[in-house]
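Title: Comparing notes on inverse folding

I've been comparing how different people in this forum approach sequence design from structure. To keep things fair, I'm posting one structure and asking everyone to reply with a full sequence. Here's the target:
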């Protein structure tokens, strides 16, 4: 039955074979028109047939991704949704909770893909996922690179930038408790020098304080040199907040070391308390 559903007509074969011979995974509608030497309407018929048989999936208007033969028609899982979302606009990167999920830093599974781009677009849907657009300030649009996702190049924030982004905007990562969990989990394989360099580049003392406090909360062993740099970056300005600025019953309260008012409860952060330390001990054993 699988062979029947993915059998190809001569014109359909030309499209698939052309992509395979060129080592490509994506194609645009005008290319198919030119390749087949037919009218746009006839090309649309071929495209629709290839989509129906599970060989092509629409990434954005007029752009399509090849679903490799070895993956079969059921290849549209979460990873392929990232590949589809990545074709919406350039420049971009996949970030926040979506990147954290890709790196295995969170156990939460969401049907939202956070796409970060300086281009102003409307949110949209890709398959079963909702793609939400995040427009960052220019000096925060860095810390990303290409990652191979089932043969497709997808631009994703690196591990360190993912953690900082999630702490900077925890509502895009599942909340303050989840951002703390993401940091604690990432600390097992974390480039502290890079993270501090990123914080210097961002230039936000409140973000430094949240990051430093959450690292201490998670029991993470920050290298002495980087810890000293973090405390210096934290500055001496007025106190910052972790959590909302309104009253939160049972909030942890003010921390003198990081000059941070932790306006979340211990219950909300319970899952990450000491998690970095426990992971480190387990690894050494």
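Reply #1:
Here's my take.
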């Amino acid at each position: 039955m699988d062979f029947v559903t993915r059998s190809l007509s001569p014109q359909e074969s030309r499209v698939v074979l052309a992509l395979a011979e060129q080592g490509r995974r994506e194609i645009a509608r005008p290319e198919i028109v030119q390749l087949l030497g037919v009218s746009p309407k006839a090309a649309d018929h071929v495209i629709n047939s290839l989509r129906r048989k599970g060989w092509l999936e629409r990434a954005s208007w007029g752009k399509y991704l090849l679903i490799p033969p070895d993956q079969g028609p059921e290849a549209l899982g979460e990873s392929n949704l990232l590949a589809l979302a990545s074709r919406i606009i350039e420049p971009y990167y996949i970030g926040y909770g979506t990147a954290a999920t890709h790196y295995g830093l969170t156990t939460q599974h969401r049907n939202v893909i956070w796409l970060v781009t300086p281009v102003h677009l409307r949110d949209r849907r890709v398959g079963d996922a909702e793609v939400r657009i995040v427009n960052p300030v220019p000096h925060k649009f860095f810390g990303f690179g290409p990652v191979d996702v089932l043969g497709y190049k997808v631009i994703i924030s690196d591990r360190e930038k993912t953690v900082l982004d999630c702490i900077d905007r925890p509502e895009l990562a599942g909340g303050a408790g989840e951002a703390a969990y993401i940091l604690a989990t990432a600390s097992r394989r974390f480039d502290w020098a890079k993270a501090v360099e990123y914080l210097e580049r961002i230039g936000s003392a409140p973000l430094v304080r949240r990051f430093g406090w959450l690292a201490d909360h998670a029991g993470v062993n920050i290298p002495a040199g980087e810890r000293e740099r973090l405390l210096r970056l934290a500055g001496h300005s007025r106190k910052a907040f972790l959590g909302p600025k309104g009253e939160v019953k049972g909030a942890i309260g003010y921390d003198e070391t990081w000059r941070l008012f932790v306006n979340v409860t211990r219950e909300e952060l319970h899952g990450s308390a000491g998690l970095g330390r426990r992971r480190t001990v387990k690894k050494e054993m």
